[in-house]
């Protein structure tokens, strides 16, 4: 039997975590603006897959263990920081070229993998699920409740980021973006780069 009270209690926490702007939000936004809703939705699916993976680890009790392994957290932070810096460099590089949007789209990374790697290399996700599910799941929790939590953990970010992608992929919004593409890509690249630098800097304290 599914513990609906436990599930409902987690919804506000998930919503607060999702709505707060982070690397995932900016990556979905930039992808939807530059490549349209389909690419943005695939990026959202990649993020949701990463969330589901960490949620499954949390249900198995492994996420908390991983979050307590300082060396592993450091490795994830370094990998995540370097990946975000690479994404930032690609965005800044695209803003300095005169290639058409269609040509740029061919060179762009796979949107699903971009979303997946963005989420998997974010150590905050490990800590979030490790602590949240450790408190929310009791030893008596049924298998159905655990599976429902994993499903909810994936569906909510998928819906949210698809909504973000749909809003930013509107023709009027994309047309405006095209006229300001270079400036927006520079700003987005700087923001993503700062997230990467922050991750690398935080790895020093591990």
UniProtKB/TrEMBL annotation:
A single GO molecular function term of this UniProt record: amino acid transmembrane transporter activity
Transmembrane segments: 44-67, 74-92, 112-135, 147-171, 183-201
Keyword Transmembrane: yes
Membrane topology field: Multi-pass membrane protein
Recorded GO CC terms: plasma membrane
Name of the featured protein: Threonine export protein RhtC
PANTHER family tied to this protein: ARGININE EXPORTER PROTEIN ARGO (PTHR30086), TRANSPORT PROTEIN (PTHR30086:SF21)
InterPro entries (UniProt xref): LeuE-type
Compartments, as annotated in UniProt: Cell membrane
Alphabetical UniProt keywords: Cell membrane, Membrane, Transmembrane, Transmembrane helix
Pfam families, sorted: LysE
């Amino acid at each position: 039997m599914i513990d609906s009270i436990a599930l409902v209690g987690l919804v506000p926490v998930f919503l607060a975590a999702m709505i707060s702007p982070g690397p995932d939000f900016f990556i979905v936004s930039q992808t939807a603006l530059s490549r349209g809703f389909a690419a943005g939705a695939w990026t959202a699916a990649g993020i949701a897959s990463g969330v589901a993976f960490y949620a499954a680890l949390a249900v198995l009790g492994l996420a908390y263990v991983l979050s307590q392994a300082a060396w592993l957290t450091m490795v994830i932070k370094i990998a995540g920081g370097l990946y975000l810096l690479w994404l930032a460099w690609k965005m800044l590089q695209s803003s300095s070229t005169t290639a058409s949007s269609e040509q740029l789209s061919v060179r762009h990374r796979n949107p699903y993998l971009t979303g997946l790697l963005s989420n998997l290399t974010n150590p905050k996700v490990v800590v979030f699920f490790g602590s949240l599910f450790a408190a929310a799941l009791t030893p008596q929790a049924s298998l159905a409740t655990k599976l429902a939590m994993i499903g909810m953990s994936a569906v909510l970010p998928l819906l949210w980021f698809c909504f973000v992608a749909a809003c930013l992929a509107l023709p009027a919004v994309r047309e405006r973006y095209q006229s300001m593409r270079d400036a927006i890509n520079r700003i987005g690249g700087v923001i993503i780069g700062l997230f990467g630098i922050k991750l690398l800097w935080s790895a020093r304290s591990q």
